[in-house]
Amino acid sequence: MNRCLTHDFYRRDVLQVAPDLLGKKLVRKIDDGSAQQFIITEVEAYRGMEDRACHASKGRTARTEVMFHEGGVVYVYLIYGMYWMLNIVTGKEGDASAVLIRGLVGISGPGRVGRALQLDKSFYGEDLTTSERIWIEDTDLKPEYITTPRIGIDYAGEPWISKPWRFVVKE
How many CB atoms lie within 10 A of CB 105? Predict the structure, then answer.
């Protein structure tokens, strides 16, 4: 039975999708054919052009173009010249919202997530419902979670700094 999440899952509001990703299984098939499986434990929501912490707040650019697509595709970007950050685009076309994957079981921090998944620029725009190298599967897990403000977005100012849009599985 294929448990891969469908476009319908991703094409909802980012504040619904983000907590619903907790406990889901992220699968990464690497070049040698082996598949690594990880449970998602921490995410952050970025809600479109009005969210000053969201990359799309500066408008449609070559970097953010994929964020304006329909939900279910990957938005990756490089920080500090060394870490690829994994984001899942959500909502309808034009919403420009995405969920940053911040943690997996045994892996804390979005930079470490990108390293563990061996991400690179080629994942930009990858469709999670049809990809043969990265996808997310449903599980029977419904973990309890806490919400906190997002991390490292002081540049966005209030009220964006204080929005409780970081979702973390309870220990």
Answer: 14
Global pTM exceeds 0.90: yes
Using one digit for the tens of pLDDT, what is the confidence trace for 91-131?
Answer: 999 999 999 999 999 999 999 999 999 999 999 999 999 99
Q: In this structure, is the dihedral angle defined by the CA atoms of residues 77, 36, 147 and 92, taken in order, positive or negative?
A: positive
Contact 19, 44 (CB under 8 A): no
Question: What is the enclosing helix (H) or strand (E) of 87?
Answer: strand 83-90
- Which residue has tokens 């969210």? 51
Q: HSE of 88 in the Cβ direction (CA atoms, 13 Å)?
A: 33
Mean pLDDT of 131-147: 96
pLDDT digits (tens, 9 = 90+) for 67-97: 999 999 999 999 988 999 999 999 999 999 9
Q: Which CATH class is domain 7-169?
A: alpha beta
Q: Residue 122 phi/psi, 5° resolution?
A: -65, -15
In whole angstroms, what is the distance from residue 46 CA to residue 130 CA? 24
Domain extents for the chain? 7-169
Residue 87: closest CA among 102, 97, 99 = 99
Whose tokens are 């620029």? That residue is: 121
